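Reopening this one. Same input as before:
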Amino acid sequence: MTDHRRYFDEIELGEAYESPGRTVTEADVVMFAGLSGDYNVLHTDAEFMKHTIFGERIAHGLLCLAIQSGLFTRATAPYATLGFGGLRWKVNQRDEVVQQGQTDLVVQKRP
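Same output, byte for byte:
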């Protein structure tokens, strides 16, 4: 079996990736509320949210981070990942870019 994962010593300093796009749907928001147990009115009460600055229900911030994790795997060749190291992330609802940030991974050196 061939190992196509990229090891630590194969990663160039400063590499950056752009993921494909993904639309967050009403079904995503509803399912994440059920999965997480976060039924805050921001995410679940369409009538209430009509009268807020958003005008409609909004997605959970943690839902967006979970989606980011999946999109990352579609934007890069797979790493020989050992674990998650941390992240710096921000969400912007007023421009084209909805999320951007950095995710730290612990990546194995080639054996």
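So the earlier flakiness isn't reproducible anymore. For the record, The mean pLDDT is 88.
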